[in-house]
C-alpha cells in the first residue's frame, strides 16, 4: 500500500482502540445492533411472556454464550463524521494489503449491525490473502451510529432514499472523491457492494449513484431477499415481532436465545454480533421491563417496510455491474428474477443448511462464494465476460 494512500486512509479512519481479552463491557457496546428477521426468514418460535424483574429468579449467565470482542475480526473500528447526513457513523474496517485490492462494503439488514459481518470479514481477508479488505457499518438508527443534527430521542427517518443517501455519503466521507483525487481512487479502489436483506436493497440503489460519481464497482451481491416474497411476508411481521421476548436478563441470555431458536445458527458469530442488538433498560423503565431490551425498535419501522423492497428486482437486474444473488435454502425467485436468470443476467447461488442470516450461519461458505465471484469479475481474463454481461 503506498504511503500516499495509507496517509489518506489514516486521516479518515482511526485505529481500533486496544481491547483487553476479557473486555466484556466494550463488547456489549461493540455488538449493538442486530435484532430480528425481517425479510424472508420466518423467525424463531413464539416465546412466553417475560417475567417481571421483581418476580423472576436470577440465574448465572451461561459461560458458553459469553460475548466475543470484535477486535480479532476487524483491524479498525471508529466513528466517521458524515456531515452530509448529520450522522456519526460506526465503521468496522480491515483494509486490503495491496494498492490494487478491492474493498467489500457490507450493509446489514433491518435491526442488525455491522458486526453481523464480523466472522465473514475475517474469512474473506484470509481467503484472499489480503487482496480484499472488508468495510462494514452501522446504519442510521442502529448500533453505535448516532445523529449529530438532532437529539437521540428524535424520530428517525428510515426511508429507503435516506438510508441510500447515508450509505453513499459515508463512502464519500471515507474514501476520496474521484474528481478531487483521481490518482488515488481511480488507480486503486474497487468496491464490491454486499447487502443483507434491507442492506441489499440499499446497496442496489446506491450502485448507480456511486458509478455516476466515478467509483469503480466490481459487483453487487444481495443476500437472502427476493422482492415478491418479501412483500408477501410483510403482513405477518407484527406477529413475528410479538413472538420475540421483550428483552433478556443478561447479554448471555440474548445470545443463547438467538442460538437455541436458530435465529442464528453459528454460536461464535452470535457471540460477536448479538450483544450490539440489546442495550440496558433505561433507569426509569417500569419494573416489568427486562434488564436488557432491544436496541432498535423494529415495530416503529413498519411504515417503511413496503418501500424498502418495492422495485428491488428491477433495480438489481438493471445494475451496470456483475450481479450475485445468494439465497438460503430453497427460496423461490419471483417472475422478474426468474426471467433474468434464464437470460444470464446474474449469478444465483443457494446455500444449504443456513437460515436468513446466511452470512452469520455459514461465514466460511459465503466468503468462498464472494472471493470466487470477486476473482471472476475483478481479476477477469481479457476476453472473458463478467457475470451479467451479454
TrEMBL record:
Keywords: Hydrolase, Serine esterase
Parts of the chain that traverse the membrane: none
Residues covered by the AB hydrolase-1 domain: 104-368
Reactions that this protein is recorded to catalyse: [phosphatase 2A protein]-C-terminal L-leucine methyl ester + H2O = [phosphatase 2A protein]-C-terminal L-leucine + methanol + H(+)
Entry EC no(s): 3.1.1.-
Function of the molecule: Demethylates proteins that have been reversibly carboxymethylated.
Protein name: Protein phosphatase methylesterase 1
Organism, as annotated: Ceriporiopsis subvermispora (strain B)
Organism lineage: Eukaryota, Fungi, Dikarya, Basidiomycota, Agaricomycotina
Amino acid at each position: 500500500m503506498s504511503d500516499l494512500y495509507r496517509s489518506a486512509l489514516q486521516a479518515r479512519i482511526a485505529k481500533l482502540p486496544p481491547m483487553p481479552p476479557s473486555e466484556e463491557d466494550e463488547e456489549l457496546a461493540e455488538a449493538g445492533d442486530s435484532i430480528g428477521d425481517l425479510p424472508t426468514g420466518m423467525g424463531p418460535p413464539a416465546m412466553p411472556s417475560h417475567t417481571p424483574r421483581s418476580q423472576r429468579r436470577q440465574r448465572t449467565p451461561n459461560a458458553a454464550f459469553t460475548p466475543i470482542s470484535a477486535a480479532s475480526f476487524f483491524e479498525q473500528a471508529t466513528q466517521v463524521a458524515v456531515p452530509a447526513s448529520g450522522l456519526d457513523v460506526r465503521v468496522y474496517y480491515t483494509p486490503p494489503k495491496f494498492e490494487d485490492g478491492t474493498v467489500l462494503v457490507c450493509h446489514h439488514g433491518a435491526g442488525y449491525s455491522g458486526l453481523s459481518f464480523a466472522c465473514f470479514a475475517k474469512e474473506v481477508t484470509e481467503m484472499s490473502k489480503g487482496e480484499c479488505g472488508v468495510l462494514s457499518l452501522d446504519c442510521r438508527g442502529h448500533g453505535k451510529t448516532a445523529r449529530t443534527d438532532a437529539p437521540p430521542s428524535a424520530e428517525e427517518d428510515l426511508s429507503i432514499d435516506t438510508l441510500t443517501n447515508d450509505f453513499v455519503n459515508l463512502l464519500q466521507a471515507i474514501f476520496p472523491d474521484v474528481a478531487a483525487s483521481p490518482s488515488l481512487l481511480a488507480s486503486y479502489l474497487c468496491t464490491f457492494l454486499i447487502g443483507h436483506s434491507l442492506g441489499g436493497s440499499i446497496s442496489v440503489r446506491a450502485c448507480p449513484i456511486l458509478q455516476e460519481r466515478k467509483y469503480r464497482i466490481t459487483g453487487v451481491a444481495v443476500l437472502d431477499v427476493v422482492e415478491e416474497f418479501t412483500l408477501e411476508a410483510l403482513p405477518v411481521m407484527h406477529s413475528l415481532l410479538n413472538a420475540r421476548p421483550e428483552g433478556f436478563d443478561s447479554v448471555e441470555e440474548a445470545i443463547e436465545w438467538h442460538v437455541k431458536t436458530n435465529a442464528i445458527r453459528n454460536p461464535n458469530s452470535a457471540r460477536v454480533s448479538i450483544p450490539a442488538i440489546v442495550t440496558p433498560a433505561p433507569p426509569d423503565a417500569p419494573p416489568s421491563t427486562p434488564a436488557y431490551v432491544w436496541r432498535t425498535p423494529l415495530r416503529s419501522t413498519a411504515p417503511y417496510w413496503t418501500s424498502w423492497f418495492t422495485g428491488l428486482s428491477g433495480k438489481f437486474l438493471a445494475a451496470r455491474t456483475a450481479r450475485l444473488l445468494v439465497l438460503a435454502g430453497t427460496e423461490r425467485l419471483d417472475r422478474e428474477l426468474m426471467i433474468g436468470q434464464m437470460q444470464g443476467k446474474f449469478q444465483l447461488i443457494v446455500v444449504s443448511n443456513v437460515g436468513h442470516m446466511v452470512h452469520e450461519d455459514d461465514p466460511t461458505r459465503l466468503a468462498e462464494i464472494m472471493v470466487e465471484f470477486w476473482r471472476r469479475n475483478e481479476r477477469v481474463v481479457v476476453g472473458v465476460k463478467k457475470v451479467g454481461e451479454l
